[in-house]
Amino acid sequence: MQRIGNRGLFLGSFFDGAAKKSPYQKITLDHELDIAPELGTDLTVYACANLVAEMASALRDLRVRPGDKVAVYKEDGFDIFLLTCAVARVGAVPVALSPSLTGEVVAELLNRCDWPHLITDEKKLVGELPPDVTKRCKRVFLVTGEAEGTTALRRDPEAHLRPYTRTGTRRPALLTHTSGTTDTPKLVVHTARSLRARYRPQALGARLLIRGRETLAVRVSFVHSRLVTALAIALKRGFPIVITKDATPERIADIFAEVKPGVLEAHPNTFVEWEPLADDPRGPLSNVLALSSTFDAIHPRTVQKILGASRRRRPFHLQLYGQSEVGPTVGRATSRRRAMSADGRCVGFPFPGMTAVRVVDRNGRTPGPGDPGFIEVRSDGRALTYFGEDARFQRQLDDGWWRMGDVGYRTRWGCLHVSDREVDVIPGFGSALEAEDLLMSRLDSLLEVVVVPGDEGAPTPVVVTRDGGPLDLARWAEAAARLAPMRPPVQLTLDELPRTATAKVQRLELARLLRDRTAGPGPDTRPTE
């Protein structure tokens, strides 16, 4: 079903269809666009389509040609996505790089791209990127500011707008990077065909579960492939769209109190930070019908808290389990009533006729709760390869089955349960993710808890409290009583946690930091006593 009539999803014409059908469809931002601050924060689909075409014309005039690779690395904002679409409109291949990446990592990815163009701004160029970056690229374009050895990239409202250059559906259409939770991010090569295949199961689910016209509020990394499918569904359905880059609860509460969104799409850890919105007397969550999270499993406590604040009759949580390399592969919907009783490790079922999943044993025994196996999936949404690392990509394939890098099992009814990442398994402890769910559900004061191997590989919980105050050790001991023995909890602040562009905790890096601090003194990060 993912293949039938798959004509591709093209970023170069992403806004064109919606601009013809409903040109005044609203796109509201919480920030101005660096490439067009004069447009303000209240945009329309038509304005976005025009802006993409104007920037594409500017790129053509600067001799960017079909097939060229163009990296986009600038200060955070929705114009990252618009510039990505403009690059694709020229027929070039956009390489979307998160502004949260360090300059050194970006330089390494630019080297891997083999002489690309680079779109950036003065702040990133001077403050983040290494001085020799201009030697790693064909040309460096600045959307704001100026610097020696670079070329200004500006929109021209009077420019002659040309039709987009359509590429083959199986040709590279977009490069995004993985979250980098285990090592340097990999560059994932998407095609128009694979993006359309990812769009289809999500569009089907949205059509079945969301019947009316709802306002979609999105807080998703502007370089993630998930943003493509989420916005494509909203544009097709004519949903008003609210796009934010500031995830702080105070700012989000002000925005949601005004627009009263019906559908929320964000990273799971972002939803945890938004839990206080449920107690806001202005009712910023009162109109929420659907809560959607794709990037990772979400804590049941968070789902119950947010859905519990809705005044809709049957609000629900749509959980999708996937990966940058394959898109969503399984999913399930949970009602408000069942949110707390639902198993947070259960991520759902494959999409009939579209995706498939299997669990392969790790140790010769049938996969189950005590012996999780390797999770493998099949989907036409699978990316083409890792750019410059095809051998690495092929190692994760087995006759068309893609190894997700997670371990888990399937229940007798076929529901997939994810226990841990392969590299995060702590021998003899059980599922660290399940332990974290239990601790989060029992301790409302926790903003985050992560169990990683600490000194001598012993399971060590790292906690972040919501108000930054000290952890209540008595309540902690009571909450952890039924879990396997752990070392005393280590308390950090949220800013001290190493996280990816999609707000995932970099567990291997966190474990390394704990080991380093055990070997030497580290202020304010001692185990709680």
From TrEMBL:
Keyword Ligase: yes
One Gene Ontology MF term: ligase activity
InterPro entries per the UniProt record, alphabetical: AMP-dep_synth/lig_dom, ANL_N_sf, ATP-dep_AMP-bd_enzyme
Presence of keyword Ligase: yes
Domain AMP-dependent synthetase/ligase: 38-387
UniProt-listed Pfam families: AMP-binding (PF00501)
Domain of life: Bacteria
This protein's UniProt keywords: Ligase
Protein name from the UniProt record: Long-chain fatty acid--CoA ligase
